[in-house]
Amino acid sequence: MPKSEKVTAPTPTVPQNAAIFAQNLNFIYNPKSGFAKHALINVDLTVCQGEFVAIVGHTGSGKTTFVQHLNALIRVQSGYLNVLGQDLSAKKPDLKLLRRQVGMVFQYPEYQLFADTVLADVCFGLKNFGIDKDERENMAREALELVGLDFAKVKDKSPFDLSGGEKRRVALAGVLAMKPKILVLDEPTAGLDPRGKSEILTLVKKLNQTEGVTVLMVSHDMNEVYENANRILVFRDGAIAFDLPPRDLFRMEEEIESMNLEVPAVAAFCNELERRGIVLPKECRTVDETLAAVVALKEARDA
Amino acid sequence: MLRDVTFGQYYPADSFVHKMDARIKLVLTLLYMVGIFFVQSFVVFGFVTVLLLAVVLVSRVPLRSVLRSVRGIVVLLVFTAILNLFFTKGADASEQPLWAWSPWNGFTIEIYVNGLKSAAKIFLRLVYLVVGSCILTLTTTPVDLTHAVESLLKPLRVVKFPVHEFALIMSLTLSFIPSLIEETDRIIRAQKARGADFDTGGLVKRAKAFVPILIPLLVGGFRRAEELANAMNSRCYEGATKRTCMRVMKLSWRDLVASLVMVIFFTGVFLLYGMSSKWGGIVWLYY
Question: pTM for the whole thing?
């Protein structure tokens, strides 16, 4: 007679080169009360190192819940999650290491500033992770210069005396100073003017391309998602409804609109052209790129 | 985790108590709170228990959510009960303590029957006080409650007391509580993500760990207050001048019935208290 054994799912093999690997991830808020809410349903996902992934979806679709799993602000309830080689379903993952490697920038990060000086605030994370004083200042300088602030000018200022855009950059520097391998951003551009927006996005893209930082960005602005991400996850009711490259996702205009999402202007333009039989190369995601492609196409035809 | 703080929050239901006029509920709750201090014997505490249970039953609020309110004052309860237990002496010097312990010369801890009784009574009184006031907040929306306060304080206008402003401050305070809790939660998570550690280390280290939460919270509080003030100013908000209420409060038969029950009950309690010297013979009513 075979012994009845407790069935435990075997630990899945994590693909090489995966920064984030989730399998069958489920999460329920208030599981035992009448207000139980299934926030994540069977989420399977592999994100490779160096990807730029955008996460879109409605409020309450589970995207924030998912993102908070990545540095164990929310602990795995059921399923398997591996971030940078650490098994987060385990009882005691190394939280310090994890949180240093996974930088998380919350919505309106400037509201978390607290220290007397900009320097002290940027150093807060570094201090928590046990980096010594001289090193801290160097890393803070690097981070502040990276976000485009003049280190000598701002370091002794109170963060509360800065402008809104500067405050946000200081908060961002506080996360970037730790040199995270994965950067998670929750609506990093909300409430900024167009210039502030493009500055933040340029910075994030630069980090992704030159430093190889894996980026996960939650956003409601489909235009910025379209222009920057290599891959888009659409969350709907706690599950991943779509996981596609931008061009392929926004070709499905009806589905997109049925989820109350917007089709980005450039994508709508390309879709319209495609309906008329003109196919632009996949890489056109900004207005400039598209314009250049159209001009090139026209010149090729004329010639 | 922080959501647990919000005990006594409005519990929506369609019941006798919910439909009562908030003003009457407020006044009756005050009567009840005063009345509790005039209850002397365990037998009368028994009557109060029956009354409370009846009100909970009629209000259709689950008993569990009513009792949950006691959780917030557990420390206070234990502390006062212990003080009463050890510091109440016997009726006269000849009475022997139930239990005594002398760790060193000249210092003894003694427990008397009276100490036990008064500890039990203070315990019951505090629990009933909290439970009673909780029934009010469980069955009345904060908005109704503020209207009730405003309406009841109206007479004070004669002495130039800013009644409307007072009620406004009250309702704003109440409405800010959930958003402040949410904000605290968010700040805690943000600082944790930057490696902040709130759970280890000594007392001083832990107290210091709260600075990164408290400062953003305070700054945020001021920011919200200023935004709200601007929003009100830009809509030309002007205190009490000729404002009408969307919901006009009206008394109904329910208020009459409830008032009668409560008034009769507590008249009894007050009478018993006042007559204690005359009726001293009926011991069970007093001790």
Answer: 0.75
